[in-house]
Amino acid sequence: MPELPEVQALAADLKQRLVDRAITRIDLAAFSALKTFDPPLHSLHGTLVEDVTRHGKFLDITASGTHFIVHLARAGWIRWRDEVPALPARPNSKNPLAARVVIDDPETDRQAGLDITEAGTKKSLAIYVVRDPREVEGIARLGPDPLADEFTIDALKAILEAEGRKQIKGVLRHQGTIAGIGNAYSDEILHAARMSPFKPASSLEEADVQTLYDAIRDTLGDAVARSSGLAASELKGEKKSHLAVHGRTGQACPVCGDVVREVSFADSSLQYCPTCQTGGKPLADRRMSRLLK
Questions:
Q1: The CATH number of 4-140 is which of 3.40.1080.20, 3.40.50.10490, 3.20.190.10, 3.40.50.300?
Q2: pTM of the prediction?
Q3: pLDDT per residue as tens digits for the range 32-59
Q4: Terminus of the chain with fewer CB atoms < 10 Å: N or C?
């Protein structure tokens, strides 16, 4: 799932490609992806792209005052194409294409554009056309951006106190609490902080809060810096190559050499290092425990 660093890099890459260029048309290939009807999708045809930004994990292409917003969900991605087919994209259940944004290129006879795709059968990708980003419920409910100036250690302390006994892993992932952190970077942040994912939020001492705050800012900041300037096609590989524990079950922890372990849930999993994070004790994998009974 694309998270804050990847979405920020996507926004930067698309901004230098799209700003001051006209949207010729937008082809919708997966009708279920479009979540709004006013303004209509075709209202963007002929508009001029003014900016590309992000809100948490939402990508926002602003064109002539209207916002084309995409949430890539778990399996969505964006691919730039120097030339797109002349014929409009058609709905096809076997095709991962959800939508295509065709861009006018006044310097050539070709039309470039970007394909918004979603792999797999579980379709969660969402597209919104709105006059104000806050009309998207998910954006209106976002917590503070962890790389923004207003996300201070005092802001984090207040969040942790308000979340009470909730597990710190869930607190980091909840978009209404802190925007932009997903499953992968929450694992990486907690590994950097040497903290158990099951630790209650309100149990953190003063020094723990500082450690967690530094891990959030450093882990995300470093990922953003590494991703800066990369094309969309390079971002997935860059992210995967720098993960310490996430997606590395059974491999050696790069810090201590212990085996990275996993806890599985109904539709996701987390990875952690016992030596670095839980005092050497493996966490109970509840799903596996039920299967063994």
A1: 3.20.190.10
A2: 0.92
A3: 999 999 999 999 999 999 999 999 999 9
A4: C
